[in-house]
Glutamine synthetase (Pseudonocardia acidicola), 459 residues
Amino acid sequence: MATAADPRDLRARAEVQARELAAAGVAGVTVGWADNNGIPRSRTVPIAALPDAATTGIGVTSLFAVFDSADTITYAYEGLATPSGDIRLVAELDGLVRLAGQPALAWAPGRQVDADGEPWPYDQRSVLIRQLARLADAGLSALIGYELEFGVYRDTEDGELIPAHHGPAYSPAALTEIDGFVESVLRDFAANGLHIGQLHAEYGPAQVELSLTATDPLTAADNQLLARQTLRAAAHVHGLRLSFAPLPSTSSAGNGWHLHTSLWRDGSNLLAGGPQGPGPEGAAYIAGLLRDLPAVAAVTAPSLGSLARLRPGYFAGAYRFWGVENREAPLRYVPGSALLGADHANVELKTSDASANPYLALAALLAAGAAGVAEKLPLGPPVQTDPGTWSEADRAERGIAALPKTPSEQEAALTGNLRIAEVLGKELLGAFLAVRRSDAEAAVDRETDDVLAGLRWRY
Ligand code: GLU
Ligand code: MG
């Protein structure tokens, strides 16, 4: 009997979808993924080729796993040290959508498999799928909500940062300056099946934030990529350019892509609790995140731009602690309330940005938290002020350290944490570290602003 995984079934389904999309005027399908720098990559094929793309896939080089943030290919990792090799990029039909802002195109997330269709150890999406299976084995599931902050600029030849809105922060006046863009975003997100929680002019010059309502983790990661594509298309028609970079320049506000998690067992939200914190299992989840935070942050905020963004006092989470509704905390517990209900409770990771591969970010996050639950880790009291304003001695007394500040501290945190290293797997970790080193080497002797300018439009 044919099953859902039967390639004939898949092909038949893709044929129907290709015919329908073609009849509606769609000419091609873009299959997207994110590399180890969080940079979206893609291949586009004519819509008639969708059945092939969804079954045997599209040929791409295996070297995307070792592209650095400037598209330099590093051969420093022994597993991918030659220019030889090809893999297949398979379009995932479950995520197929016609792009409202680019109506001649459909889009689907891609999964990378080896030339024979077997699992490929460098495929980031499979890392998350594997982690979600482990979570399910432990009787757990998660809901993930993303907040996306970005800068909106005029689209100019030289890529200079000319703000498209001028504040004030959170004001409708700022949004009026980019009214056409905001309209396109609202319409195109809805048409693409992306649910916006809210949208506002953020604190920084030219900055905008929107939140996506919570979904299962795989959908959240797929949707994060679709959201970027949808935003870019909306900006393009209005002569605007968006920077998703963690820090577009040293004088910009940082762009966090904060991750909200709630963890569920048997229909109960384990993050629910009282105004002071979650119940015991939710507390253990936060304790697990806190324990592994330096290694998790090396995946969720991995780039040179991420490190530049993590300044104390900027709500980016520079020190390792948790707090209740404390916006300076990398782990901010958001309690439920009488108004919103107990199940509104979640924990936000602020040390997260667009230079993270979303699949790897969620896999690392959930592995750390789930280990805390499995081990019933105790959680210390929350910190409700900003440790960045304390003396070094006070921080030492409370055991609050800065998160890694340099690429080598970051690498040590990741390689020194076997739990998180194992989530990525030996090969992917090797490639991931090779591109981090390649980025770091290319930045030696360069001014921070020069490095940030190089990353400004990459994500
Ligand atoms: N822009 C800040 C960041 O770098 C976050 C501000 C906020 O709390 O929304 O993450
Ligand atoms: Mg914000």
Observations:
- The two ends are 44 Å apart (CA to CA).
